[in-house]
Amino acid sequence: MPHRVDDERDGMVELRFLEGLRRRRPDDTGVLRALGDLYSRLGYNQQALDADRELVGKNPDDAVAWYNLACSQALSGMVDEAFRSLVRALQLGYDDLDWMMRDSDLSSLRNDPRFEGIVERIRGNK
Length: 126
Hints:
There is one protein chain. By secondary structure, the protein is mainly α. The protein has one domain: Serine Threonine Protein Phosphatase 5, Tetratricopeptide repeat (Alpha Horseshoe), CATH 1.25.40. It is 76% helix and 0% strand. It contains seven helices and no strands. Helix 1 packs antiparallel against helix 2 and helix 5 packs parallel to helix 7.
């Protein structure tokens, strides 16, 4: 268990650092992406969702930003929104099927027939 405490402590140190950096550099999308990823890893789903929404707003043509938004939406129980964001990510070129199949953020979507449709769409594009 001590390792887990260290991981949590490291996560909180990283969070304080990134939030401070974000205040100093509010337009830096790299900081925003890192902060959104960290919020998600720490289980701060609402903060991750807010960061991902902002990132998509700043980078509407970024496939990975849309994928991350879909993950945050799925974790927040926003299933229909998550599927819309996943479809948008695909339209913009997202095609990492291997990752998508094992990404635990999307586990709530996997039993929905729309998920299989997305999988087939990616397979058809390769």
